[in-house]
Every structure is written in structure tokens, then in C-alpha cells.
Amino acid sequence: MITVRRLAALAALAVVMPCLVSAAEPPATTRYAVSMNRIKPGSADAWRKVYKETYVPALKKTGVPSFSVGEVIFGGRPMFVHVRSLAKFAELEAAPLLQQAGLTQKQIDAANAIRNAALVSEDRFVVTVQNEFVVATTPGTSIRVAQYIRPNPGQADALRALLKSDLLPAWQQAKQAGRIAGAGLATTGQGRPGLIVTWVDYANLAALDAGNAIQQTMGAAPYALFQAKLAQVGHVEDSMVTRREADLSYANAN
Fold this sequence. Notes:
Alpha-Beta Plaits; 2 domains; 8-stranded antiparallel beta barrel
């Protein structure tokens, strides 16, 4: 379903991305495996419970460095996205997660039954964060506003160059001014290739009441010029807001 996939491309940046490598020379990119779960009405609590009690502990036990869950606030709900670090594709060839964690077959069947009963659909794909575009997010933030951008034919490089020259400095200035908590950019790969997803983080929903932080930072005329240039190389197809599920998310210290 195309609408779910579009939302998934946005929600892929749900909230694990602020926890990027903090070494002096970080890698150019960081890869994540994403799963978007659309949930049956009335089943969200059961979905949360089985993840909190079974899946998240299993991820930690098997050594997955980071995992995050975000809830889509507006639009078709309930919907959750979970994002796990993926250093190598070979990780996906391993035995099923709960089996790796040492659960019995009875425990595995019970957990999977609860999860599957709650699901309407699941969309899985890979995203790659472009670390040169990341403005580190202040810890403790909960809201992410993301935009899903499709490059115009033959304009992918020009779109990336524009976002680097115009948008990245505005993000940096907005962070310094306290208008945003962080920002970044990722590209989509296997399962949903060829897209650019940008995100801006805020401490809470109330922070959105201040208005368009990027327009305020650039100024009205420069922002209008940026939008005009953006229209020449790409177009925003959708946007969304997600809220971090703190008790289902973690990132190990580096």
C-alpha cells in the first residue's frame, strides 16, 4: 500500500538516529533496518507489552547496539516504526531473534502470536543516515517532524548539494538559537530505494507552536528562494510527526 510505504520512509527516522557514533572520526554513513507496523484498533497496548517484555530484552541480550520505537501521532493510526542498527546485512541471516536470545519454542510461539494478532501490515526496508548532515539531537527530546523528498529525474546529486548548502547551515543555526533540538538526513535503500528523508527534532509537541523554525532562521525571503530552488530538483511528497516510545528504545554507550 503506497501510503503506508511513504509513511514508513518518513518514520524510518523515528528516533534512534540521534544516538550516532561519537568517535572523533565517525563513519560517513550509518545503516539501520526499519520495520513499520500498522496495528489493529485496540491492539496497541498488547503490541507495546510484548515488545517491552520480550523483543526488546532479546535485542539487548543478543548484542544489537541500538533499537528505537516511534509512534506516528497523526494520520492513519495506530502505527509504530522500529529501527535497529544494521552494521552488516549478514546479521539478517542469523537465527530468529528470540531463538538467539535463548527463549523456548513455547515462549517464542506465544510472543509471536501476540505480535501477529496485533498486526494489520508490516513494511520493512533499509535506511542509511548521511552523518555529514546530522546536527546532533539534544538528549531527552521526543518529537520528530520528517519530510519525504523525491528527487526529480536526474537531480539526485543536485538535490543533495542544495540541502547541504542551504538547509544544513539553517539547521545548525536553528539548533544554536534553541529553535530545534537537532536534525539530519538519510537515504532509503533495499525495500524502498531512491528517497531522501530529512528530519527535525523538538523537545515536545508544544515546541511546534512557535512555527516554522527553518523559515524563522533563514528569514522569509531566503526561505522562499530555498523553496523555489528545491522545486527545481525535487519535491516533498509527504510529512509526518512521530513520538519516541522511551520505554521501548535504547542505545548502548560507545
